[in-house]
Amino acid sequence: MSLQKTYRCMVIDDENHAIEVLSDYIADTPRLQLVKTFQDPVAALMDEEEQYDFVFLDIDMPRLSGLDLARSLRDKTRFLVFTTAHQKYALDAFDVQADHFLLKPISMKKFALTVDLLLKNIERNAASAPPAEQTFFIKSDQKHKLIKVNLQELICVEGLKNYVLLHTLGQRHIAYLTMKEVEDALYTFGGFMRVHKSYIVAKSHIERVESRSIWLRNNLEVPIGDTYRPGFQEYLSDKILVTGR
Predict the structure, then answer these.
(1) Last residue of a domain, one of 113, 128, 143
(2) Which end of the chain is least crowded, N or C, by CB within 10 Å?
(3) d(CA 191, CA 205)
(4) Is residue 2 part of a domain?
């Protein structure tokens, strides 16, 4: 059976019933995984999770409007979908680069069609895109100097506060980038996956897995974060040879 990508979701709504409805819809959609829910928009603003694929966000909430919250969350998610009972917010929603607008009450059919449309768009674009060059450049710590990184030699990316450390087969390079920026860039190439808040690994350089650690080329050990464990286990499940005896 072919392995399909699982898309990570967050739901933010001040009404518990609305959260329950969307949580049920996500649970009934095979390719979606519910990661977090928030009734308090301020708590959602302080969320430390690095990246989501879908954020389903109410607009009319106390203390912090969904429109204001969206401006902070836009860079943390691939798809931003507003869920609201008020049609009047539609134009405002797209001003903050929302991908879709669902008017409550939201039916399972309407939810499923929206998710399917958004996923088909990115998968169609990925399929039609020309093969990406398997290299990229990063700025070095020296002025006016760029360093070329070959993706086939990139073992993992380690996040270190305001910069990242790129481990390659022969060297290590420091770049003033965020983990999200690197993750988004590597997504276009494929072959890499986030396994921890602070680590992205190259699947081709995984040598063994022991309990809560991944061992890579060059004897690099990387922890598996609890948030990313289900996705990594799903990846492994399609690679493990099991005897039929």
Answers:
(1) 128
(2) C
(3) 10
(4) no
User: What is the domain range of residue 122?
Assistant: 7-128
Query: Does 44 share its domain with 87?
Result: yes
Pairing of the two strands 192-196 and 206-210: unpaired
86 falls within a domain: yes
pLDDT of residue 74: 86
Q: 10-residue block means of pLDDT along the chain (245 residues)?
A: 72 97 96 95 89 93 92 89 82 76 92 92 62 74 80 93 90 89 83 93 92 92 92 80 57
Do 123 and 146 lie in one domain? The reply is no
Nearest in space to 91 (alpha carbons), one of 67, 55, 64, 114:
67
Which among 98, 128, 158 is the end of a domain?
128
pTM: 0.54
The 3-class secondary structure across 133-147, one letter per residue, is CCEEEEECCCCCCEE
Burial of 90 (0-12, 13-18, 19+ CB in 10 A): middle
Closest CA to 2 of 33, 34, 30: 30
H-type alpha helices, 4-107: 16-27, 41-45, 66-73, 90-95
